[in-house]
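Sample 1 of the test manifest.
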Amino acid sequence: MRDMNVVLSNDDGIYAPGIRAFYNAIKDLANVQIVAPSEEQSAVGHAITLFDPIKTKKAYKNGKLLGTAVSGTPADCVKLAICELCETPPDLVLSGINLGANTGISVLYSGTVSAATEATILGIPSIAVSLCTFTDPLWDTAETIARNVFKYALESKMPSDALLNVNIPNLPLEEIKGTQIVPVARSRFNEIFHKRTDPRGNLYYWLDGELEILEDRKETDAHALNEGYVTITPISFDLTNYAAMDKMRGWNVTGP
Amino acid sequence: MRDMNVVLSNDDGIYAPGIRAFYNAIKDLANVQIVAPSEEQSAVGHAITLFDPIKTKKAYKNGKLLGTAVSGTPADCVKLAICELCETPPDLVLSGINLGANTGISVLYSGTVSAATEATILGIPSIAVSLCTFTDPLWDTAETIARNVFKYALESKMPSDALLNVNIPNLPLEEIKGTQIVPVARSRFNEIFHKRTDPRGNLYYWLDGELEILEDRKETDAHALNEGYVTITPISFDLTNYAAMDKMRGWNVTGP
């Protein structure tokens, strides 16, 4: 078991407590290399850095080496770890533990999920883990769940063509109702742009908003998490809508 | 027809020739409002700006008003246009014309596609258009194709749950072989990190790489574009991998 090589990243940055919690959850089960953004990178989606250099440095806390801090996005971290920093390709990439749920359409904006997506594109199985709170995180719960999910990977049960997106309710372990394997809830953000004026009289906006669930299905990630279940969703990166494709046969746009 | 209200954005920035070409292609068919990044935003994926203000200003070229320049990502532009800048929600959002193909896994990193994705999430049909070249773009070809695609939207033929991702070969119109409705090619980037040292002796990396196609299917966006067809791919944003879900029934990760 000790021979499993794992890269651990996140989007909250290398100094965030969540990445430490993930490390603690699995450190006796694998060789863990931490490669994470030097600063918080939430809502960066699947951004990568093409037009700037990516800088790395060793990150320490209380004199102890944490890992490699990267001046880039979560996807940058995972690319760099797999292609350049690891001596051999890792067996698994983990991302998190993120503070705040990544359910519904949030999955698309999530840096936590994008780190895992990047790994899966590069052929490495991966798991993104989020804890559904911004305050008073119950790390004990999160660590236990993360460790249990990780054991499925140890037992080679990971799907080959999907990353796993795990969301954990912020409850004491004994209050969690169980595990649900559920799809991403169809949803959108109800955007609010706060419109303000800067000290020099220039207009600016600040984005705010709430997730709105747009569907009738009861068994989705957002619903199940809200009801107190751990949710696991396999995420694909073939974005083709095959059903819509069938309806478009016969389109011809190349006439003059 | 004149009553159709369209928002036009891109990721190459409001001063890019491609957005001007798209505008020229459709300006007599719709009311077009341009809301685009003030600077190039390639490879930003589906990033949104949460932790900084978003500034807007009127953009002019040769004394003529182009539209609204936004200090944010393509997804920011579309959110802001739909939720704040447009008096009534637009009927359609267009993105492009991008320089460089957006096929295969590039779709996931593409700011051009993310602008269209954002619109579709917010319930507005959308079309992303890219021209497969970085040099000597044949804008006449691209404008004709973009206009023809747009006419399908005018005739209310857009799918309701997918955005359209259109790629155009950089060929004279008469050399284009036709239109293909095709899936996204399974692919990855073969990453190369150029490793360098800055003038102060610090290590940095610069990302480079080439798209590698990973599949046997001949009818994909990357193949068809390469063979000289215009490709149209409906893109979904339900990322759930339903097939993998079925294989994971019975997982339980909430034990102690």
